[in-house]
Structure formats: C-alpha cells, structure tokens
Amino acid sequence: MEDLKNVYISPLPDSPYVKPFRFNYTQNGKEKTWDLLEVHDSVAIVVFNVSRKVMIFVKQFRPAIYYNCIHPDDRESKVIDTEKYPASLGIALEMCAGIIDKNKPVIQIAQEEVLEECGYNVPLDQLHKITSYRSGVGVQGSLQTFYYCEVTDDMKTEQGGGVDDEIIDVVEKTIPEIEEMVNSPGPIPSPPSCLFALMWFLHYKADKFRKSYGRYCVECKTGNNNMFN
Fold this sequence. Notes:
The protein is α+β, with helices and mostly antiparallel strands. The chain has six helices and nine strands, in the order ββββαββαβββαααα. The chain has helices at 63-67, 106-118, 175-182, 192-204, 206-210, 215-221; strands at 19-27, 30-38, 42-49, 54-61, 91-94, 96-99, 128-135, 142-151, 169-173. α3 packs across α4. The longest helix has 13 residues, at 106-118. One of its GO terms (molecular function) is UDP-sugar diphosphatase activity. Its cofactor is Mg(2+). It is an enzyme of class 3 (hydrolase). This is Uridine diphosphate glucose pyrophosphatase NUDT14.
C-alpha cells in the first residue's frame, strides 16, 4: 500500500467519475457563478463484529489527502519527491463504502461493498438503512446513504481487501479505541461521514456491547493505540 512511485500532477481528461463544470444563476437579482463537480452518489456501511465486539474499518491510500499534504510549491515539480512526501501521508481510515455506479438497488450495492472490502456476507435483511445526507456540499452535494449491520466471525466468507486494482486493508477497533479516535485533537485521517457514523454508533448502539466487554475491554485500553492498527 505504501509503495508509492512516479507521482506527478497532470490536467484532467474526460473522466467517468468526476465532471467539473460551472453553475450559473441569478440570486436576489445578482448574477453569480459556482464551480462544481458532478460525481456519483454513494453508500457507506458501519460494520460491527458482535463476535469480538470490534468495529470494522477499511484503510486505503487516498490521493486527495496525499495531494493536500504536498506544499503548493512542490506540486509544480515534474515528479513529487516521495522521500519528502511518503505514502503514509495519504492513508485514510474509513467506513466500508462505495460509489453507486450500477443499475441495482442501493441496499444490494451496500451488500456487495461489505463482501468485497471487508469479506462479510451479510443478508439483505440484516442491512439497516439509518439515513442519507449530502456530502461535499461546497462543490458536489452528492447523496450518500448510510447503513448499519452487525456481523459474526461465521459470516466472513472472503478475505476482503477490494476488487480489481483496489488495495484495502481491513482494520478492527474496539469501542474504547473508537472513543479515543473521535476525541482526538486531529487531524483525524477520516472523512466527516465516517466520524458521523462513529458518533451515531457510540450514541445508539455502543452501550449494549460495552456491558459485555469485561476483562477484554480493560485489556484493550492498555494495548496499542496506533490509529491504523
């Protein structure tokens, strides 16, 4: 995942994923413009393993995060110096998620993402829609639908890690580790939608699992608190 080479910036050709355009409008009698991006809607799924009382995250390299860690002067370089800017700068910790680019029900796409990225085969009736919201409202405003599911070790039928050329690691965190993460002064290497999902889980679901931690929970607090472990 962190074997990064030949990094450079180039103009954007026609893309099936991102379409930049200018939005023109008149508001309160004043002509205005706004530069926008047309992108796919998406799904995000909170996956909690009830066998071991851990949250399932995905860890992956995000070029957008990496790019914004590069000093503006260095972005003009022909090739980005990956010694100065290692790949670790662009590693994100997220909920299982994916774009809606198939002509299928959203819940079915969510089911496929959980299997492909995390390896769990979750029946459709065990995926619960929580809400939907607009993301990136400054430049895109796409719709993301948020699901929750509880899984067991027996439901893990695949290794996970994504499909095709995706490079994804599955990361597990206990409830105390999640609480420490959301209380971090930052910058937290996670998108706002992930943090919203974690706060939702801590508010509505975590208490029933906290009671069953016992000695295991105490041991977790004294373990390795590296955010990506």
